Amino acid sequence: MMRIGHGYDVHRLVEGRKLILGGxxxxxxxxxxGHSDADVLLHxxxxxxxxxxxxxxxxxxxxxxxxxxxGVSSLKLLRxxxxxxxxxxxxxxxxxxTVVAQSPRLAPFIRDMVENIAxxxxxxxxxxxxxATTTEELGFExxxxxxxxxxxxxxxxxxxxxxFEA
Length: 166
Fold this sequence. Notes:
CATH architecture: 2-Layer Sandwich
Strand content: 25-35%
Structural class: alpha+beta
Distance between the termini: 18 Å
Number of helices: 5
Helix content: 25-40%
Number of domains: 1
Order of helices and strands: EEEEHHHEHEHE
Shape: globular
CATH class: Alpha Beta
Mean pLDDT: 95
Strand order of the largest sheet: 4-1-7-5-6
Radius of gyration: 15 Å
């Protein structure tokens, strides 16, 4: 009745792109490079959901070779993955994600990210958690070359016992 999935994604920071995380445009001189809007957080969440369903990954469902996904909002991709999740009889019990970035400071944007994700996942905001951390200037995130994100999701079979709700 329950399924767990983990997702991870990384994108390079470049000039000339908007920085979109969790569906929120964040003021920053650099943005993430990718075929879509390159929202690394939502991509990790999509991969976590697809992993929980044993349904491959975001690249399989939305290949970068398909021009239909060029510049597309990752919120749209997340909504499509949620539709697949619902079609397979599951709903999000809870979701926890971490964005790893040396800069910019993300705390002022977390609440909006949570609201966007909860809305796309069709759940209350109490079921979604987003955190941000740095790497203390270590690794590619610390050198400000890119941003990564991890996500873990617990899916519940629709109609299953609701004993895990807070």
